[in-house]
Amino acid sequence: MAAARTAKPDAVGVGAIDAARTALTDLVDAGDVGEHLGHASEGERVTTHFFACTRAGYRGWRWSVTLVRASRQKTVTLDEVVLLPGDDAIVAPAWVPWRERIQPGDLGPGDLLPTEEDDPRLVPAYLAGEDDLPDDEEGDTIAAVTDELGLGRPRVLSLEGRELAAQRWYDGSHGPEAAIAQSAPGTCVGCGFMVRLAGPLSTLFGVCANAYANDDGRVVSFDHGCGAHSEAQLHKRNLPAPLPEPVLDTLTWDDLEQF
């Protein structure tokens, strides 16, 4: 691929600094225009001059004034004036679509987060609902089975959806790498407060049901753990110091009168 050709500087355009400044101050307040910062050759007989912007709130920005000279002419003509950010300018962060900006915990009462029709985390269920079942005893039996298996929904988790959820849960604060799990006396798989899940995720996760645990009501991995384990026991060094022997007060009023 041939290298792009650099435009040859136009002597008239390069020397037209005053003309560029005059054109700029005709459009903006002269107090917002600072020193000349240089020029760039944009094309044949096209030159852009840069001036510092001194307007409050625009630190690092610069005015860009583009001049063009017609063939065989000795004067330049104003083409464009824009305000552009420099290398150290304060600019807004890159725009991110709202769906990508949403974080866990952002949804509040009344907020809706529609799911895309082609969301790879979901696949169509085998049965969409009772309307698709035959209206007889066989239909009642199928409905009971599908309700028990959780299939009476338009869509269910896909294999990818399950893998994403499992990885997210396992890598998060309810997995084995959490600091509280590293110092736990035992893992959740041996805790009496762990309620097992149903379905494919039940092979690795359960739900904590200990009201005093940090993870109460949350999904935890089997190899997670915390100090509220059902079988946790205090070591002797962790037991409170024993109370001293009690001292009985045997003084009576007669004894006090003798003093």
- Helix share bin: 10-25%
Tell me the strand percentage band.
15-25%
Number of helices: 7
- What's the alpha carbon Rg, rounded to whole Å? 38 Å
Query: What's the β-strand tally?
Result: 9
Give the overall form: elongated
Number of domains: 3
Structural class: alpha+beta
Instruction: Name the strands of the widest sheet in spatial order.
Output: 1-2-3-4
Short description:
By secondary structure, this protein is of the alpha+beta class. The chain is built from 7 helices and 9 strands, in the order H-H-E-E-E-E-H-E-H-E-H-H-E-E-E-H. The chain has 3 domains: 11-85; 116-157, no CATH class; 160-232, no CATH class.
Provide the descriptors you would attach to this structure in a database record.
single chain; 259 residues; alpha+beta; 3 domains; four-stranded antiparallel β-sheet; three-stranded antiparallel β-sheet; 7 helices; 20% helix; elongated; DUF3027
Structure description:
There is one protein chain. The chain is elongated, with a radius of gyration of 38 Å. 20% of the residues lie in helices and 20% in strands. The protein is built from seven helices and nine strands. With 259 residues, it is an alpha+beta fold. It has a four-stranded antiparallel sheet, with helices on one face. The protein has a three-stranded antiparallel sheet with strand order 7-8-9. A two-stranded antiparallel ribbon has the order 5-6. It folds into three domains: 11-85; 116-157, no CATH class; 160-232, no CATH class. Mean pLDDT is 84; it is low at 127-133. It comes from Nocardioides jiangsuensis. It holds the Pfam family DUF3027. This is DUF3027 domain-containing protein.
